[in-house]
Amino acid sequence: MTPKISARDVSVFYGAKQAIDHVSIDVDQDNVLAFIGPSGCGKSTFLRTLNRMNDTVASARVSGEILLDGEDIYASGMDVVQLRARVGMVFQKPNPFPKSIYENVAYGPRIHGLATARADLDALVEQSLRRAGLWDEVKDRLTDSGTALSGGQQQRLCIARAIAVDPEVILMDEPCSALDPIATAKIEELIHELKGRYAIVIVTHNMQQAARVSQQTAFFHLGQLVEFGRTGDIFTNPREERTRDYITGRYG
Ligand SMILES: Nc1ncnc2c1ncn2[C@@H]1O[C@H](COP(=O)(O)OP(=O)(O)OP(=O)(O)O)[C@@H](O)[C@H]1O
């Protein structure tokens, strides 16, 4: 199977400090891939290279190659706005726009010209909220502010917002770390439902979560990709000592 994203020999520097050290990895189409590793090992930094979110950090410099469907996303002609629609992102802290629930979801399709007629936009908003498992909770209050929802609902709204522009990949950077266990379980359920429709990459500190939601796991340490494989193998039979030490809680 051709990978959805292929990262080759990727390094990232913040000024003189190297945060990612020659990482190569493929993201498959039909999988959930989890990035795990101790704090500061570079999980978020690497995740953010996959849709050029590091462009927003002045000191960040990326080398190597990242191909999306075989196309170099760092090529000079790449439209970064379009790229971030194709490779959407959900952040640690839910960050809905200070606008209505409807507008949070409709904004992206409108600026990308995916729906112009009101009825089409309404249908797209409903479909996105349904896929994000939020429709039944908000259908009678679409004009309320997105920021008035609970944290878990806000995170699902952010997922609906990412889905609305018809992405191919969804990057999730610790999407449950600000949520309680019930809201977390809902997001995990949602990840199961979204799997197959979108390639999903999730950064998580929670190893049980990685084991529950992902089919593949990548373990990072000090900017290096130490081990990458099937989640079951990584957690039950890791090849590398550093992976074993981490998953058994010897450091972290
Ligand atoms: N904007 C930045 N400017 C300078 N250094 C940064 C920046 N962002 C991250 N770093 C550094 O890069 C390294 C990797 O950080 P990163 O946040 O990617 O790790 P992480 O594994 O996601 O950590 P955590 O699990 O704590 O979120 C760390 O040493 C961090 O201090």
Bound molecules: adenosine-5'-triphosphate
User: Largest sheet at a glance?
Assistant: 6 strands, mixed
Structural domain tally? 1
Could you tell me the mean pLDDT? 95
Counted by DSSP, the helix tally is 10
The helix fraction, in percent, is: 25-40%
Instruction: Summarize the helix and strand pattern as letters.
Output: EEEHEEHEHHHHEHEHEEHH
As a whole number of angstroms, the C-alpha radius of gyration is 18 Å
Q: CATH superfamily, please?
A: P-loop containing nucleotide triphosphate hydrolases
> Which term fits the overall shape?
globular
Beta-strand content estimate:
25-35%
Number of distinct beta strands = 10
Low-confidence stretches: none
CATH architecture call: 3-Layer(aba) Sandwich
Derived from helix and strand composition plus strand pairing, the structural class reads alpha/beta
Through-space gap between termini: 34 Å
CATH class: Alpha Beta
Task: Write up this protein.
- This protein is 36% helix and 25% strand.
- It has 252 residues and is an alpha/beta fold.
- The chain has one domain: Rossmann fold, CATH 3.40.50.300.
- The strands form two sheets. It has a six-stranded mixed sheet with strand order 6-7-8-3-9-10, with helices on both faces. A four-stranded antiparallel sheet has the order 2-1-4-5, covered by helices on one side.
- The radius of gyration is 18 Å and the shape is globular.
- 42% of the residues are buried.
